[in-house]
Amino acid sequence: MTETTKNKIKKKVKQHIPKDWLKELRIIYRITLEAIYGIKRTGWINLAIVAIIFAILTIFGFFLRTTLSLPSFINALGNALEISVYIKSDANTEQIAKEINTYEHVERVKIIPKEKSWADMKREFDMANMENPLPDTLHVKVDKPENITPVFNKIKTAKGVEDLNYAQDIAKKMQTANNVAHSTTLFTMLIVAVLTVTIINNTIELVIQSRKEEIEIMRLMGVSNWYIKIPLILQGAIYGFLGAFFALFPLNAVNNMILKIHTFFAVPAPILANNTVTLVLFIVAIGFASGGSLISIKKHLQV
């Protein structure tokens, strides 16, 4: 292909490319270069910034991933909890069982005849020959752990019920653990926000000070304020992105460990939990980091 033919092809291609597109691409290119130059000016501090963001995001990601799995274990353990209902000797056990089975949140009612309970006890312990003192028992399974107490209180008022109990302490401890995990995750997110914004704020201030004269010249030349702001915001977003990216490696190991625990206890793992953590991690990191840049710009740069 001759040089003349190449030039003709280039001219035809340029004619079909809208000039506005070229202008926008040039602006994006220049903004990206400015952000990269800003990172270069910061020097070794870049490593410290990314390392700190990486550390706090790893902690946050760990608590978030744990929080996503904890309800699965709570539900699994809660489903194993049953309310034991002891029936009076003169009451109709089957009728009471049918009535309780109609209660809201009750999944199943199993009748344990007193004869079976007594036979099991005699097999396990050396019992003297005596009359069976045990009552008929109902094992009531509730759909969710948080509904055990309301069902328990309702069964308590039923006619023919002598006594009832369930592992109340275990249920309360499971619910407390769930609440603590959620609170810890929110608290960690708050720490992530404060530290990230503070770090980025100080970093962008250094960049602004090093480019003070250059920025003044651009303003005198009539350069748009956003053309000055966006590279700095992009610089903060890059810090957040890198911190989140490197945090994925230890969090992937954490995810594999949690999946092994799920498998060991035969508890289904939450669907897309790892993907959710990854998405939230990048949104939080980039959002807080770019937000910190914007705050710094408004504070230290009157544009």
What does this structure look like?
- 74% of the residues lie in helices and 8% in strands.
- The protein is an alpha+beta fold.
- The protein has two domains: 172 residues, no CATH class; 85 residues, Alpha-Beta Plaits (2-Layer Sandwich).
- The protein is rod-shaped, with a radius of gyration of 33 Å.
- The two termini are 52 Å apart.
- About 2% of the residues have low confidence.
Overall, the morphology is: rod-shaped
Total helical elements: 10
Rounded to an integer in angstroms, the radius of gyration calculated over CA atoms is 33 Å
Poorly predicted regions are 12-18
Number of strands: 4
Tally of domains: 2
H-E string: HHHEHEHEHEHHHH
Q: Report strand %.
A: 5-15%
Amount of helix: over 70%
Distance between the ends: 52 Å
Q: In terms of structural class, how would the helical and strand content be classed?
A: alpha+beta
For the biggest sheet, the summary is: 4 strands, antiparallel
Whole-number mean pLDDT: 79
* Strand arrangement across the biggest beta sheet: 2-3-1-4
Topology:
Elements lengths: L2 H14 L2 H24 L2 H36 L1 E6 L5 H9 L4 E7 L1 H11 L12 E6 L5 H9 L4 E5 L2 H43 L1 H9 L4 H41 L7 H28 L3
Helix pairs in contact: 2-7, 2-9, 3-7, 3-9, 3-10, 7-9, 7-10, 9-10
Q: How would you briefly describe this protein structure?
A:
This protein has 303 residues and is α+β, with helices and mostly antiparallel strands. The chain is built from ten helices and four strands; from the N terminus they run αααβαβαβαβαααα.
